[in-house]
Design a protein that fits this description.
mainly beta; globular; 4 helices; four-stranded mixed beta sheet; about 450 residues
């Protein structure tokens, strides 16, 4: 019995010592590994206008922390999304002690962008819009700029936005716009033109919860006025409609895309909810421009195809709740917004389903210049004012426009994409049309 007890004790003691030795070896291995994987130095090269302090605040990887390949990949993706950066890469060098020296190599964008848009106004006259925006103001990704537009009448506006004013999580923005345009309004008895005047003052709070999720909360004061143009009014159509509105908007974005110059791969989704609150107005203002809730969701999918191709698709769903009978409906069928080739504000609706899909192919690329072509299909359907949601699926308001386009791209200038598209309408009373613009359609 004594022998059995002694043998059991010795075996237990030896087993304990082996386990202790194994734990000590693993502990020292972890410490050794941790020391070898430490980033002791972090640098940036290629910076000219962008502030290094700003970039260090944005990235997750910090000096004197452990090397993390996932964090580093996310940092590169985040840097490539910034307006001031055309391309970000990194170099990781190991020193004799097993630590790392990390260097981000930055190719900057030119971000002071003048733009000219030429189109046809709703009365058939020549229309244009000129603007200048700085997308990397003060080197920390602030946006500042303004525009002047002539579309029958004069419009102008100014913008300022700093998404990272309070660290890398919270920012602010402010916009002021004076719009004056000629707008067609579609009544059951026919279409009539109105002069639309709108003064907008907007404040924004911008949130960046993490790398993929961000939100906005906007409060807008809007003074809207529609005045009838012409001498042949439609029965029961108002000569003048005016409303002061307070608009509350909550917007959420999910972004998970990888950007490599003109190529984009990944998905994004944006949902916007706006409540239009009627404050005051003239005769029939509350009737036509009363309270309603607007909901819109844009889902975009990008897929890099082999070496030179890019497939892009956008599905837009939109609807309003409340005041659905008003002919002054918020969702327009328009060349620049959703259906290329359809024309300038050819219809309005209180709900819509729009699908835009296109294949982009790089035909020529050398240095900073890219020549890209695309083939697209734009399709959509609308719910007319006063109609049921079922009208979206009857085909009566459906539009289908396949087409071809070309892109002239400067790789070193932010959003420097000059696009020309021609859409071919399919179906009864379909039209064909050309669309010019700056930046990809979506």
């Amino acid at each position: 019995m004594e022998c059995l007890v002694f043998s059991s004790y010795r075996w237990t003691n030896v087993h304990f010592m082996k386990k202790t030795t194994l734990v000590i070896i693993l502990l020292f291995s972890c410490i050794s590994f941790g020391q070898e994987g430490k980033i002791t130095e972090l640098n940036f090269t290629g910076l000219k206008r962008t502030k290094e302090k700003f970039l260090r605040r944005l990235i997750q990887t910090k000096p004197d922390t452990q090397y993390d390949s996932i964090k580093l990949a996310l940092d590169i993706e985040r840097l490539n999304r910034l307006a001031g950066i055309a391309k970000a890469t990194y170099k990781l060098e190991e020193d004799a002690s097993g630590s790392y020296r990390l260097t981000y190599d930055i190719v900057e964008n030119f971000t002071i962008i003048p733009a000219l848009r030429i189109s046809q106004a709703n009365d058939g006259s020549f229309a244009f819009r000129i603007s200048t925006f700085e997308f990397n103001f003060l080197g920390n990704n602030q946006l500042i700029g303004g525009f002047y537009e002539r579309e029958v009448f004069d419009s102008y506006g100014g913008y300022w936005q700093n998404p990272f004013l309070f660290g890398n999580k919270v920012g602010l923005g402010f916009n002021y716009k004076e719009f004056s345009t000629q707008e067609p309004v579609f009544f059951s008895e026919g279409t009539k033109d109105y002069r639309f005047d709108n003064t907008i003052v907007q404040g924004q709070v911008l949130f960046s919860f993490d790398f993929n999720n961000e939100a906005e909360f906007n409060v807008t004061f809007s003074d809207e006025e529609y005045n009838f143009i012409g001498e042949d009014p439609i029965p029961n159509a108002p000569f003048s409609v005016q409303a002061d509105r307070l608009i509350f908007e909550a917007l959420y974005r999910y972004i998970n895309v990888d950007i490599d110059y003109q190529y984009i791969d990944g998905v994004s989704n944006e949902i916007s909810t706006e409540f239009f609150s009627f404050l005051d107005g003239g005769d029939r203002g509350e009737e036509f421009l009363g309270d309603f809730l607007s909901i819109r969701n844009d889902f975009i999918y990008y897929k890099k195809i082999k070496e030179r191709g890019n497939w892009a698709s956008r599905l837009r769903l939109a609807a309003i709740v409340g005041n659905e009978d008003s002919p002054f409906a918020p969702f327009a069928v328009d060349n620049q917004l959703n259906i290329r080739g359809a024309g300038t504000t050819v219809d309005r609706g209180t709900a819509s389903i729009v699908l835009n899909t296109e294949y982009r192919h790089t035909f020529y690329e050398k240095g900073w210049f890219v020549l890209q072509g695309n083939a697209f299909v734009d399709a959509g359907t609308w719910r007319s004012p006063g109609e049921e949601f079922s009208e979206l699926f009857t085909g009566e308001t459906a539009r289908l426009f396949p087409g071809l386009g070309i892109r002239f791209i400067h790789k070193r200038i932010f959003n420097a994409v000059i696009r020309i598209d021609y859409g071919f309408g399919i179906g009864a009373n379909a039209t064909n049309g050309i669309t010019f613009g700056v930046g990809q359609f979506f």
